[in-house]
Amino acid sequence: MYLQGQRLDMGALAKQLGISRATLYRWAGHRDQLLADVLWSLSDDIFEQAKADHPEHLGAERLLAIFRQHVGALIAAEPLHTFLQQETQAALRILTSPDGGVQSRTVAKLAELYRQEQQAGAFQPRIDPAALAYAVVRVTEGFIYNDAIATIEPELERAERIVALLLE
Known about the structure:
Layout: H1 10-17, H2 21-28, H3 31-52, H4 59-76, H5 78-86, H6 88-96, H7 103-119, H8 129-149, H9 156-167
């Protein structure tokens, strides 16, 4: 439903799966939780592909290449644009709030990457990797989600310049 730009209807999904709504809620949680899991899964796949695509880079150069590819793919994702336009408040709550199900996992994933680069001796962050990851995620959210809501083109280049400063 999400990938087709349709609103996630838990009743219709339960019917399509041939299960009761109660079973669906037991398996997947509430609607926002299921959407968070879907959004996270898709974003994580893109992130892992970006990591795999840049083994030749090291340190901040690698981190920026991964950032550029990951965020660029999110900006280009039509289902995400549709979700933001059709369900703005739910989308922002799920994507950008600490308990929304996406932001906290994104911060943890990014902090893990920063720690890996640090342990490899290729990157020396000036602050704790978790705090750095949180700052990068919040900056990125401002440039891709808020701009999408305001119907302003997301600005990957501006976000990347700021992230580059954070990663120095």
